[in-house]
Design goal:
97 residues; mainly alpha; DNA-directed RNA polymerase alpha subunit; transcription; DNA-directed RNA polymerase
Length: 97
């Protein structure tokens, strides 16, 4: 294929749910299409871990996908663990200031 073409994968009009209509780079759309995923609603149903298991999808692809579809997949508990770890350590002795 030649670069610079405007061929979209799986396009049928101006359907906003199609990944090709979400401003994703063509290589990301193609990687997802190769795995049978053509719609933003299909991507939002998958976790980041599930996306990373797909052939041709890496961390950069997941970041681009999540930005384009306006959805962030945070594993349950990960955000809570980070928040609780911020309050746990106390380096300064109490009553010293």
């Amino acid at each position: 294929m030649q670069s610079g073409g405007t061929t979209t994968v799986g396009s049928s009009g101006n359907d906003p749910d199609l990944l090709a209509a979400n401003g994703l780079p063509q290589w990301v759309v193609r990687s997802l299409a190769d795995n049978g995923i053509r719609r933003a609603s299909e991507v939002t149903a998958l976790s980041d871990a599930q996306l990373l298991k797909l052939r041709g999808v890496g961390i950069q692809s997941v970041k681009l996908i999540r930005t384009a579809v306006g959805y962030s997949s945070q594993p349950a508990g990960e955000e809570r663990d980070e928040a609780s770890s911020n309050t746990a350590p106390k380096d300064s002795p109490s009553g010293s200031q």
